[in-house]
Write a structure and sequence with these properties.
CATH topology of chain B: Ubiquitin-like (UB roll)
Number of helices of chain A: 25
Distance between the termini of chain A: 40 Å
Number of strands of chain B: 7
Oligomer: heterodimer
Largest interface: A-B, 36 and 22 residues
Number of strands of chain A: 17
Helix content of chain B: 10-25%
Distance between the termini of chain B: 41 Å
CATH architecture of chain B: Roll
Number of domains of chain B: 1
Structural class of chain A: alpha+beta
Number of domains of chain A: 3
Helix content of chain A: 40-55%
CATH topology of the largest domain in chain A: Aldehyde Ferredoxin Oxidoreductase,  A, domain 1
Shape of chain B: globular
Largest sheet of chain A: 6 strands, mixed
CATH superfamily of chain B: Beta-grasp domain
Low-confidence stretches of chain A: none
Amino acid sequence: MQGYMNKILRINLSSGKISKEEISHEMKIKYIGGRGFAIRTLWEEVQGVDPLKEDNKIVFSTGPLTGLPLPSSGKMVIASKSPLTGGYGDSSIGTKASMHLKKTGYDMLIVEGKAKFPSYIFVENDEVKICDAKDLWGKGTFEAQDFLEAKHGQNTGILLIGPAGERMVRFASIISQKGRAAGRTGMGAVMGSKNLKGIVMKGNNEIPLFDAEKLKALGKGSYGLIRGSEGITNKDQQNYDFWLRQGTMATVEWGQENGCLPAYNYREGTFKFAKQLDGYAMEKIKIDRKGCPLCIMQCGNIVKDAEGKDSELDYENVVMLGSVLGLKDLKQISTLVRFADDYGLDAISLGSCLGFLMEASEKGLISDGIAWGDYEGCKRVIKDIINNRGNGAIVFEGTLKAAQLIGGNSKDWAMQVKGMEISAYDCHGLPGMALAFGTSPVGGHHRDAWMAAYEIGKDRFSYGREKVEKLIEMQRWRGGMFEALTVCRFPWVELNLVLTKYLEFLEAATGLALSDKDIFDLGDRFYALMRAYWVREKGIWDREMDVPPARWFNEPLKEGNLKGIKLDKGKYVEMLSMYYELRGWDANGIPKKETFQRLGLGDVVEVKRNG
Amino acid sequence: MKLSEMAEFKFIGYIAEIMGKRSLSIAMENPTKLENLLRFEGKKDRFVLLINKEIGNFDSVINNEDEVTIMSIISGG
């Protein structure tokens, strides 16, 4: 099929064996690419393993639009059995590496086994090598990026881990281009467990297209729509210009206004010093933009941090390392963001872990603690996390494990779902967003369904069926189509690109014409298979796995315009039951036999549980 | 004039670009329909309008003590 390179590259680091495999027609039709290829591969090949042992595998998966001259087609999905959660884990990254992987001639790279010594993989079209990385081991991702670019050229796509991944911090990230991150679910730790420091890709193969002329025209028109030059009013142009100035950082002001900007480990939904770290404050220190190839709305805001070095800011990393910790100096926050990227730590989980330690310190649960807003303390603890020592050792495996270590009621304010830390939205007053976190297929993440704006604009405090239906619809589009095509959702959500445009892209690239219903089935198939994977790998399963932390149900907000607000546990549980029913899952959240069959997953019907 | 005798308007995100300001206060002699107070050219499906934290629209009637927030729909990070 056109749009694909029709090949998988498989590298076994234990044996050094390198093989190239065809991708079946059925795989392309049923799973499209990206997350679809990843979950199907993990379902078939990674069962009952320790995520940090050599029999785990890590998958780098592009989609049929990757590398094409279309808006935001520079992404890939990186997936594995997560060392942070023990369940299905994936993370999305926008980087030159996505385009280069595809253009080396492969839709997907599967890495298995464990190298005997620190190594990196080099792929240049047909040439594939496992190279010595002893000199790179221990280096931060920024220095390693410079080293590999100097060696292999700047026209390369590079994925790297830092010291955090090498030492298998459970929330270690994979970093590219000094700030682009596959942050979530601990994929960096999986690379570290394989002695794999990095992957360098350099490809120049043509991507075969079903209708090249149509694709070119669609790309040109879509870039115009995003810029506003082909929009309906000149206001679209202002929207685009504003995005270029602030990107996702505009959400700080938005979150503060709506009482969902997390502060002090999610005790509050507003932050007294929000203006000091919002998009307007960021504009004053911004020096550049950075992002994916082929993107005209690059979202990485480059600023000079408190140590005079470049740091890439977005909403998530600023809030998680800012208001969540009671930190109000944007330059200091920028330094912590750079530490996270250079050491290779997920900024979201890191912020949550630091917030957890600050609260534990305040409550007298740990000694030699760290106070809210303690910038120097944060820098010290980040190094302690990487070295698995002192209070850093408490959160080395994330906040759920940390709560098990220090005990008491700390699980109530360990801000995670399924073992992964929640991203930067406080949900005391957002029932739908809470359900989105609760049912996210990788743990507490917003990527698949950002319900906040929807519910604020409709019926904010309701727990009704309409909200649950909307959540599932979002999960189908965002967690299904976008993750299969591995394209960015920002052109759709933030600017003017309509959803159906992506289906037009797909048809022009591959000849595959999908309807909305096809997309919904695709998303449902992913969700059923990801859920089956969780159940199989965790061994035990109950609906509490889909419930966010007790803090949001038990501790009302004490400040801000939503003072006194908290979630209603009983109503949340009812909403969760509605969610299962609409998905065709049973009362414990496990897809029913007929649901698997309806989705073409007859082989998955019997979910054998490990453990 | 006291603040409580004026309606307060906040414009969040790119709505502030469209309006040319981030906030505005208007004193009215009588309750007035929002569409008669603000000239707004943005696309109606791309923003959320709150009046005293409740969902409103351009047909809503505004009083002097009201707080009106108009914000763009965004996606976070």
